[in-house]
Structures are given as structure tokens and as C-alpha cells.
């Protein structure tokens, strides 16, 4: 629709009102709407498990407010910091094409928002529809600062499945009676593992299986013979979760805001950072019963974890009896360390690959990388004292044996203004500097290297990355999240990746497309993506304790030659360090 046509239309507006109104509406719909939100970061007293504490919230809400937009809409979200903590907000899974200044991880794409300051996050949602979420991206503040992002299709574009009767966001979290900031601060000081959470939550509520929490239970009231779209989000800090609803099957239709080939399951696995849209078809007639929906951890590491179960209640509206009179059915969840269930579940995920929603898997690869991910140690830096990590050391974590040191200023600013000296080094290793049997007996030396290193990519580089778990301090599943991109999960397996044999079985036709993938415990996963987004993009384990220990790095994607391939200058209100 050219601007001349629009001007002509406006000139004859009164002679052909119907046509012109239609034309203006078409222009508006093509461009999408601009939606404004305001996030006031403030303290709020909240009680859970009979324990009241002051927590950091958005607008006094816990969980925080939902953001609703359509594909193609522009969002302007003003974040005002009224608390003593530094704040930054990440819009998890949003591609941020040419809007890297709005991505949100502190000291990566921005300096945090200081007390009394504000920042407007400005970005457009392109080629995404489904469920994502927002959360704080500094220290452990995302334990209470999180909420859903609901992306509806463009106007008059249907879902690729039957329209649901109702849509319900379900966001999993973790509740700590103590202050999570104090927990991680103490852990980093002593070098030991941090104290675990006291409960998991569904929409901020622990549920009836916890002490003192019957009244704090999420209830989903449903009608018989209807289809509900449940938008599941794992915003927990440190735990992958199994989820199931007693006596009901779920149909998975979307993960990480990308449609998948639908499949049925009684139980699903969702890692921190992942989202899953499922269809729940209720029973044709109202049963005289209620049904527990429950989530509990999938735990593979050697460390302690919160071994508890959060639950909500699925309740049919048309029953005449009170809820206390009805039998309560409970779901059967897999064992806590059921790695075979995890592997089999992820193998059922495939891209929809329809004409409207193709899977544009990179076929020709420009750069291949092999990254090991896992735990390790650093020397104790407390003079004449023993730290609480393995053999008196401090726990650490790394990618290719580089434990990331967070800089004091933002990486993206340093790059954009050519001031990278002393901030970061552009020499992140392509492969581990030392090869060993990654999933066999661990080496005697568990010490890691430390540094602020970036991997530099030319614009439009097609990348294949193999992420290999290591058994140093125990094999463990790691949910890896890549900012600024979706990627295709082309292969996975157990043991050590074999570059001669394993690529022959890669799925290059309809692999699932995601922004967060679980690196299998004692195994590997292969992903492909196109580096078509200039900027600095964080990649890290979404288990917050591992991120705190250094299991993170960043990709620097250089500008392309065309104007729409370059990162624009920063906004004037970009926070200062």
C-alpha cells in the first residue's frame, strides 16, 4: 500500500467514505498496533506458607501483570524503579530484531535501572505467536519479578488448531521464605551450594500439598465438553518440572511461541525458560470428582534440590456437590531422575512445517562450534579459610572451561562505541582447549578458567553448535537459553558427541524450533541458527544457580551491509552504569 494511494484516498474521503475507511483500516492492520505498559517496580508484603515477607514486584502484583499483544504489534514498556535494588527486565524469547537495546540482561545489553530511574523498552513482535514471558535479568530477582507474554495471531488469522473455548496462563515459580538475594550472596561468598526453595508455585500459589497452603491453591474451573488452551510457563529459578493433570490427556501445540506438530501426552517436561501451549479437552459430562494438576522437579545433578510438589485443582463447574464431598484424583508423575522420559518426550517435538509456518532450517553451515557445559571449581579466595565447595574449593560453572566474569559496564554499549578494551575479549574458544572423555570418569583437575569472552560472528552466518554435557562434579541436564534468536534442535543423544557418526542422523526437515533447550544429562544436543540479528546476545544456563556460577557467554553479531541489517544507536534514556 503506497503513500500516494493513501493521499489520494484522503483527498476523496467524503466522496467514497466506505472505500477509504477500508483502506485506512488495512494500512493500520498491516503495521500492527502500538501498546503501552507501565511497570512500577515496588515492594509488596506477600504471605505464603504462613510466612509474610516484603518482595520486589511489578505494580504490587505477584506474579506480575500479563502482557497481551498480537504478532506485528509494537510494545513500549516503561519500567520505573522505586526499590533499592538495581533492576533490568528481559522479554524472554522475543527475537528483538534490530532492537537489541531492549533485550534486558544486566551488563550485557544495558546497565541496570538504578533506584529512582526509568527506562522504556521499545520493541516489535515479528513472526512469533504463542506464549513467552518476561522476568528480571539481574542476580536472583526473577524469583518474584516475572509474568506472562501472550502473543495472539494477527487479526483474522486463526490458530492452526480448533479455536479453544478459553485460554488460561499457568506460570510455575519458586517460593523462598528467606530473601533469595541473601541466599545467592551467601553462596557466592562461601563457595557452597545455595539453600533451596521452600515451595514451587502455580500462578504464585503453592497449593494444598504444602503446610498452611490450602487456601493458597490455584483452581481451574471448567465446563464439560470444552477445549481449553493452557499457556504453561516455567519461571522457576533452578528446577525443571514434570507436569500432569489427573485423568486428563494434554495435546501439545506450541513451544516457545512456535507451532509444533500436535501430539498427545499425559505428562510433559518443561525446563526453566521454556513455554508450552497445550489443549485440554474436558470430559463430555461433568464427573463427580475433582482432579489435581501437579508439578514436581526433574532433578539430575548431585546437589540438593527442593523435592516437593506444587498442585492446583481442576474443578468442573456443573457439579452440584461441594468440593470437599468429591473424590480427589492425583496424577502419576515420573521418578525425579527419569532421564529416559525426558529424552523420549523431547524426541516427540517437531516443527509444524506447513506452508504458512515453514521450518527454515539452515542447510549449509558456515561455522561449526563444539561447547562443553558443566560444573567445575575455583580456588577458595578466603584467606586462611576453607570454602564450602568440593575439597575446600568454590563451586563454579563454565562453557568450554571459561567461567564468565560479569563486566562492570554493558557489553553492547562497549561494542557499539568501540570501547571494548578492558571490558571483553573477542576470542571465546570454538572448542574445548583440552579434550577428555566428557561423560566418563571426571578428570582430577576440576578447576575452570575465568574471563569475559565473546564469540564474534559476521552477519548472516549460519551456525551449527553442539552442546556437550560433562560429568565433572556429576552429569546434569542444563537448559540452555539463547537470547535474540530461535534455533532448530537438529539432534541429541547420550554419551560423547561423535562428529563422524552423529550428524548422519540429524533432522534437517522438521526439527523443533526453540529458544531454550535442555542439554541431556550425560549427553549432547545439536542446534542450528542463522545469525541475522546484529548485537550482543547472551547464552546461558537457565538454572539460575549455574548462571551465578558462570555458565554463560555471549555472541557478538556484527552489522550487515544494508540499513536493515545494522543495529541502530541506543535510545536516549538507556541506563548508565
Give an overview in words.
This protein starts with a helix and ends in a 20-residue tail after the last strand. A hairpin with a 2-residue loop joins β14 and β15 (258-265). The protein is built from six helices and 33 strands. Helices cover 10% and strands 37% of the residues. It has helices at 3-11, 17-31, 180-190, 339-346, 411-416, 544-549; strands spanning 34-48, 51-58, 67-70, 74-81, 89-92, 118-124, 130-136, 146-152, 166-175, 199-202, 219-222, 227-234, 240-245, 250-255, 258-265, 267-270, 275-281, 290-298, 310-316, 328-329, 367-378, 394-399, 402-404, 449-451, 454-457, 461-469, 478-482, 487-494, 513-514, 516-519, 523-531, 535-541, 552-557. Residues 1-29 have low confidence and may be disordered. With 577 residues, the protein is mainly beta. The strands form seven sheets. A six-stranded mixed beta sheet has the order 10-9-12-17-14-15, with no helix packed on it. 47% of the residues are buried. The protein is globular, with a radius of gyration of 24 Å.
Amino acid at each position: 500500500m503506497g503513500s500516494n494511494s493513501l493521499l489520494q484516498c484522503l483527498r476523496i474521503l467524503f466522496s467514497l467514505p466506505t472505500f477509504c475507511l477500508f483502506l485506512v483500516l488495512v494500512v493500520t492492520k498491516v503495521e500492527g498496533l502500538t501498546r503501552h505498559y507501565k511497570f512500577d517496580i515496588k515492594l509488596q508484603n506477600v504471605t505464603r506458607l504462613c510466612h509474610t515477607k516484603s518482595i520486589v514486584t511489578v505494580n504490587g502484583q505477584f506474579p506480575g501483570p500479563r502482557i497481551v499483544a498480537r504478532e506485528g504489534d509494537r510494545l513500549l514498556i516503561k519500567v520505573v524503579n522505586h526499590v533499592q535494588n538495581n533492576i533490568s527486565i528481559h522479554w524472554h524469547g522475543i527475537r528483538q530484531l534490530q532492537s537489541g537495546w531492549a533485550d534486558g540482561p544486566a551488563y550485557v545489553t544495558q546497565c541496570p535501572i538504578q533506584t529512582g530511574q526509568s527506562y522504556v523498552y521499545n520493541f516489535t513482535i515479528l513472526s512469533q505467536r504463542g506464549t513467552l514471558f518476561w522476568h528480571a535479568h539481574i542476580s536472583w530477582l526473577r524469583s518474584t519479578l516475572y509474568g506472562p507474554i501472550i502473543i495472539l495471531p494477527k487479526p483474522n488469522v486463526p490458530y492452526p488448531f480448533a479455536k479453544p473455548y478459553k485460554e488460561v496462563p499457568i506460570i510455575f515459580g519458586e517460593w523462598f521464605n528467606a530473601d533469595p538475594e541473601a541466599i545467592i550472596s551467601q553462596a557466592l561468598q562461601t563457595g557452597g551450594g545455595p539453600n533451596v526453595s521452600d515451595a514451587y508455585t502455580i500462578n504464585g500459589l503453592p497449593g494444598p500439598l504444602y503446610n498452611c497452603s490450602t487456601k493458597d491453591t490455584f483452581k481451574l474451573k471448567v465446563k464439560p465438553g470444552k477445549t481449553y488452551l493452557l499457556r504453561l510457563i516455567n519461571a522457576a529459578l533452578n528446577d525443571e518440572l514434570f507436569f500432569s493433570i489427573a485423568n486428563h490427556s494434554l495435546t501439545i501445540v506450541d513451544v516457545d511461541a512456535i507451532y509444533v506438530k500436535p501430539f498427545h501426552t499425559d505428562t510433559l517436561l518443561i525446563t526453566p525458560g521454556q513455554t508450552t501451549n497445550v489443549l485440554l479437552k474436558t470430559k463430555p459430562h461433568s464427573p463427580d470428582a475433582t482432579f489435581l494438576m501437579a508439578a514436581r522437579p526433574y532433578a539430575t545433578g548431585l546437589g540438593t534440590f527442593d523435592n516437593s510438589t506444587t498442585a492446583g485443582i481442576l474443578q468442573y463447574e456443573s457439579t452440584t456437590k461441594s468440593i470437599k464431598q468429591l473424590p480427589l484424583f492425583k496424577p502419576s508423575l515420573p521418578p525425579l531422575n527419569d532421564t529416559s522420559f525426558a529424552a523420549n518426550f523431547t524426541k516427540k517435538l517437531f516443527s509444524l512445517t506447513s506452508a504458512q509456518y515453514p521450518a527454515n532450517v539452515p542447510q549449509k553451515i558456515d561455522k561449526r562450534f563444539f561447547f562443553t557445559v558443566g560444573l567445575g571449581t575455583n580456588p577458595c579466595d578466603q584467606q586462611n579459610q576453607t570454602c564450602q565447595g568440593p575439597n575446600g574449593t568454590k563451586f563454579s560453572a563454565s562453557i568450554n572451561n571459561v567461567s564468565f566474569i560479569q563486566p562492570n559496564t554493558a557489553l553492547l554499549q562497549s561494542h557499539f562505541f568501540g570501547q571494548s578494551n578492558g571490558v571483553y575479549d573477542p576470542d571465546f574458544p570454538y572448542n574445548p582447549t583440552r579434550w577428555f572423555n566428557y561423560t566418563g570418569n571426571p578428570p582430577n583437575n576440576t578447576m575452570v578458567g575465568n574471563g569475559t569472552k565473546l564469540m564474534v560472528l559476521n552477519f548472516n552466518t549460519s551456525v551449527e553448535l553442539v552442546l556437550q554435557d560433562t560429568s565433572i562434579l556429576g552429569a546434569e541436564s542444563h537448559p540452555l537459553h539463547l537470547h535474540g534468536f530461535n534455533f532448530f534442535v537438529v539432534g541429541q543423544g547420550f554419551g560423547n558427541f561423535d562428529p563422524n557418526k552423529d550428524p548422519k542422523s540429524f533432522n534437517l526437515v522438521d526439527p523443533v524450533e526453540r529458544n531454550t533447550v535442555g542439554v541431556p544429562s550425560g549427553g549432547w544436543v545439536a542446534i542450528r541458527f542463522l545469525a541475522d540479528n546484529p548485537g550482543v546476545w547472551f547464552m546461558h544456563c537457565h538454572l539460575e544457580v549455574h548462571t551465578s556460577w558462570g555458565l554463560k557467554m555471549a555472541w557478538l553479531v556484527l552489522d550487515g551491509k544494508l540499513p536493515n541489517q545494522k543495529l541502530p544507536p541506543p535510545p536516549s534514556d538507556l541506563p548508565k552504569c
